[in-house]
Predict the structure of Aldehyde dehydrogenase family protein.
Amino acid sequence: MINSMQPDIKTIFRLQQNTAPILALTDAKERIERLLRIDNYLKDEKHLAELYKALYKDLRKPEVEVISTEVGVIQTQIAYLKKNLSNWARDHKASTPLPLIGTRSYLRYEPKGVVLIMSPWNFPLNLSLVPLVYAIAAGNAVMLKPSEISSHTSVYIKNMIEELFDWNEVAVIQGDASVASELLELPFNHIFFTGSPRVGKIVMAKAAEHLCSVTLELGGKSPAIIDETANIPKMAKRLAWAKSINCGQTCVTPDYLILHDSIKDSFINEFESSLKEFYAPSDKGIDQSPDYCRIINDHHFQRLNSLYEDALEKGACVLTGGELDGTDRFIAPTILDNISEEMSIMQEEIFGPLLPVISYSDRSMVKKIIHNHPNPLMLYIASNDKNNIRYYMDGNPAGGTVINDYMLGYSNPNLPFGGVNNSGMGKSLGFHCFMEFSNKRSIIHRKWGSLSMIYPPYNDRVQWLVKMMYRWM
């Protein structure tokens, strides 16, 4: 692979434009070979040790979470592609209506060309390489822009990709927002962006200048409903884990809790007990746990601290947690009560371990609360009442829904992952992600016959034939 000095962005783009038609002719076997380069790299213990160090420096992420939320996710997707890509990449037969008798119709998935992937900092390896492996599987050339915020992991990704691929196939572009702006000036064939709705609007506007298709994996405020029929010990433990993993810096983490009045006290007690079990079994405090991550940088710590202070100033109270240490970028999992919509914490995605709780007594209140916000990425429902589950789902659009658990929306490659409106557009994972990076090309091949019987000059017989043809459909 190329190891000399990397060319400038425009040169790489031109190289990839020249290579894209060649990559388009590769078959499933050749593309899988490229994916296995990534898979084998991540299985190497030396490379894994380097990754552990990088993610610890960026997020203080424990090794178990590196495997379960970063490396393991990527390897699962590669294994799924190995099993399914040959079938996806072949021509797919389509039925032929009667007026087209004598033709053969089929669908071909062809690569879009040169694609841009812009990934975030919260799961910097996972959210860079998962879209990358699908872009490669679809036969595209790729420019990957990882986040400069998770700088150590971004360097790791760059070193890995430069060892495995030539720049004219896959290139990692590092830099800040100015570099991202420079990239968005180029006429890519597709852009896959993961990040905030605010930046997503910028990406979409720039893509529109080139009529470039986009996949936007955004976020928003994902509500977690827990009704009076839920198994409180189980759901409290599951939510405590979901809100704490990666220090709450996860787009699919529950953003606020809608809790039935009758189980509020018991839920809080169980939540506190679960946190102690996870992170403070020896009563040393969560801040001493080797298994609890930290906020990514000072800027985001101050942002979360401002949300916390604003809520307290406007009447919120702490039910559990509330410990913040700026010198260590530590924020304990914290539940806030007495929440109002005027608080900043209810106006933006939190992206941290703060959890506002809103109580309700009648289920009709739940929909009113959710409708105060744009459509979420995920809707969480904890209930053992089928009628309640159906009620909470109906009329509450969301990118996905998880019932009686959390964080599973990004786990099954047989299901599409993505938002709706403010929380995103387009889908990721599995065949749905393969399609995002593919042009769905329809093909009609005339094998015999023709439509000459309805050519001009028109007469009563032609008119009768046309009517009959469409009545028989």
Notes: The two ends are 56 Å apart (CA to CA). DSSP finds 15 helices and 18 strands in the chain. The domain at 9-218+423-441 is CATH 3.40.605.10 (Aldehyde Dehydrogenase; Chain A, domain 1). The first helix runs from residue 9 to 23.
